[in-house]
Amino acid sequence: MARDTNGRDPSLYIELDRKQWRDLRQSMPMVLTENELESLVGLGEQVDLDEVADVYLPLSRLIHLRVAARQRLYAATSTFLGELQTSRQVPFVIGIAGSVAVGKSTTARVLAALLARWESHPKVDLVTTDGFLLPTKELERRGIMHRKGFPESYDRRGLLRFVTEVKSGAREVTAPVYSHLTYDRVPDVMHYIRQPDILIVEGLNVLQTGPTLMVSDLFDFSIYVDAKIRDIEKWYVSRFLQMRTTSFADPNSHFHSYAELTDAQATTAANDIWTSINRPNLIENILPTRPRATLVLRKDSDHSINRVRLRKL
Ligand SMILES: Nc1ncnc2c1ncn2[C@@H]1O[C@H](COP(=O)(O)OP(=O)(O)O)[C@@H](O)[C@H]1O
Ligand SMILES: CC(C)(COP(=O)(O)O)[C@@H](O)C(=O)NCCC(=O)O
Question: Which residue intervals define the domain Phosphoribulokinase/uridine kinase in the entry (predicted)?
Fold first, then answer.
């Protein structure tokens, strides 16, 4: 096999442990307080300020450098097009993918908060793809209610159109909103996106590709949040047990009947949903997209991120 000039096997990626990655923070200041961080961390997640310092601050620095580089690339195209196109800031789009219950939403929120502290790109918006799940009525009509989270359960064209409009500089673009409470799209409520500097799109399947253009084609940077399947399964079940006294306790929750389940019953119910929906989706659709990610954040069983893989080519 051909080797690089240092005698190593060629690779698209560089793998770093937490200490090596942490050193790439350089002089980035800590800009979050304990209280701010607490408000960003989701149920069952365990991010602390050390992890922000070691993992998220270097990441914020890397993305900041890449935002500037991307603008130079767009400027090159504008120079080429001359009068055919006026030069402008194009929103930088980040995709965040990974399994159900791996902690994507927390990663997305922490990153959004850090990126918004940069003077050159203070306006950061975050959209989750659950808003683009087809409404329950339509999922039922198609007989795919049990496939929620699988690629076919989304309005993929709508998602592509949405990100295209944001990148095109539209003054205001709307995204539909999903409710975990009603387990359906919320009628008449929209998320308004008004010319952000950075847009983060978080969801299970955002890194999927296909024969036609897909939202992944519009990403300037992508992150895959990764962990062992056995660990994610444990996190899913333990979060489900916790939800009996939080989300499910609300009488309006679609899952309210689960609130009364014993530990054993709730564990069985969570395992059933995991093995019939979330695990197959992870294996068939989500995991195969991991090689495509610019960055993989690898979590250990205690949720801590201890390894990072960066695409360098
Ligand atoms: N049934 C539910 N009721 C209320 N909130 C939920 C429910 N399922 C998931 N969530 C919340 O929705 C968010 C996304 O969860 P999920 O899709 O599992 O992705 P991740 O854990 O990777 O962020 C999390 O903040 C989670 O706590
Ligand atoms: C809403 C989800 C499909 C995730 O949506 P995403 O924002 O990742 O597109 C997922 O959290 C979900 O509810 N899955 C269905 C099976 C379950 O209840 O675990």
Answer: 93-229
Whose alpha carbon is nearest atom 25 of ligand 1? 42
User: Residue whose CA is closest, atom 21 of ligand 1?
Assistant: 101
- What is the reported pTM? 0.97
Residue 8, pLDDT > 90, answer: no
Q: In this structure, what DSSP letter does residue 24 have?
A: G
Domains with residue ranges and CATH for the chain? 13-311 (3.40.50.300)
- DSSP letters, 118-137, are STTS--EEEEEGGGGBPPHH
Print burial letters for 17-54: b (CB count within 10 Å at least 16), e (below 16): ebeebbebbeebeeebeeeebeebbeebbebeeebbbb
Tokens of 8: 């190593």
Query: Taking a C-beta distance cutoff of 8 angstroms, is the pair 296, 312 a contact?
Result: no
Cα angle 182, 231, 53 (rounded to 5 degrees) comes to 90
Is the CB–ligand 1 distance for residue 180 below 6 Å? yes
φ and ψ of 217, to 5 deg: -65, -15
Sign of CA dihedral 112, 115, 117, 122: negative
CA–CA distance, 132 with 109 (Å, rounded to integer): 19
